[in-house]
Design brief:
mainly alpha; 2 domains; 6 helices
């Protein structure tokens, strides 16, 4: 079955209409008493969930899936901004880094269960490119079924 969003999928799994679902962990706190995490879609354990990373859970089946970060947030600037205005770009990046690393932001992000690691422009672009490559690699398989 497909659902229009996480809310309807959470209702279906917690109400016993389906036996298995893939859901974002964030936002599922309200159904925690009705479900049991089987695996987390991550390369490493996630403290909030008592479940192994997905590829660890799949080992007994001799299976493996690529792990693509499913929640990547970025702050964007106009393409060419870095080349056209290098000093302004450097100031922009430094200001953004300062905000992300500030105690106030870290506290609020933690309370909201939001990512709060500073990765910088180069690492952020690498993650986006890697995710895009994985999605394109498997998109044919998905669309053909």
């Amino acid at each position: 079955m497909t659902y229009d969003g996480g809310g309807t999928a959470r209702t279906a799994i917690s109400g016993g209409q389906v036996d298995f679902a893939m859901l974002p962990g964030e936002g599922s706190e309200g159904i925690a008493d009705f479900v049991r995490p089987v695996a987390v879609y991550s390369d490493a354990p996630v403290a909030e969930f008592d479940a192994p990373p997905v590829n660890e859970a799949l080992k007994p089946f001799n299976a493996q899936v690529p792990v693509i970060p499913s929640s990547t947030r970025v702050f964007v600037a106009r393409k060419g901004f870095e080349n056209d205005h290098p000093q302004a770009y450097a100031k922009f990046v430094a200001a953004y880094k300062k905000v992300v690393e500030s105690d106030a932001f870290q506290k609020e992000a933690a309370a909201g269960k939001l990512g709060r690691e500073w990765r910088g422009p180069v690492e952020s672009q690498r993650i986006i490119d890697q995710n895009y490559e994985q999605i394109m690699k498997y998109s044919g398989e998905i669309s053909e079924k």
